[in-house]
Amino acid sequence: MSRPEKTEGLRERKRRETRLRLAQTGLKLFLSKGYEETTLDEIAEAAGVSRRTIFHYFAQKEDILLAWKSGLGEAMRVAILAQRPDRPPLDLVLAGLLELVGQFQAEDQIRIERLLASTERLDAGKHAKYAEQEQAVFEALAALAPAPERRDRLRLVAMAAVGALRVAFERWAERGGAEPLADHLRRAFAELKAEVGSMTAAASEPKSPPP
Asked: Domains of the chain (ranges plus CATH)?
């Protein structure tokens, strides 16, 4: 009875490996030749597969370029779950993200961001990935703080945290990676918390009676 399970596991592993190889090959060609100039035939040849095989893994060329973002949400979820749960949710997310930023190579990531901004469809696909990241962050926070009454608030935290990540990443890319991405992350999260704090303070101030 265990043999089919092993066979299925091997098949799935090979599929993941092939998909990863195609994504890495495509990304390498996009960076060296340009997105528009790279053809599916060139990707297939460089990856050692047929052109038809590509469509078993990616519906269109844009998906190959977007694939590099696909694993980020899961990586964020795992990194957050590894944190101590006795800290405020925003601090948990920041701590998890800071563990991941060392994997970002400035030059390549900035070039990828420029590629993603080069067409409307790519830019729209990039923004769709942020929704996946928000869901991953929310799931991690909800697992660390499973009280049902906190779910809506944790979803808001996840949305705000991914927004801060976007701001940090965009600043980092615009400035050519001159400062470490970790510094931009800390600054963006500090600004977020300061703004939320100022709004809370303003809301709690006693209202002056009308004249």
From this structure: 2-64 (1.10.10.60), 71-202 (1.10.357.10)
Encode pLDDT of 26-43 as tens digits. 988 988 888 889 999 999
CA-angle at 209, arms to 203 and 211, nearest 5°: 135
Does pTM top 0.85 for this prediction? Answer: no
What burial letters (b/e) apply to 163-187, b meaning 16+ CB within 10 Å? ebbebbbebbbeeebeeebbebbbe
63 by Cβ neighbours in 10 Å (0-12 / 13-18 / 19+) ranks as middle
Phi, psi for residue 189 in degrees, rounded to 5:
-70, -35
Residue with token string 């996946």: 132
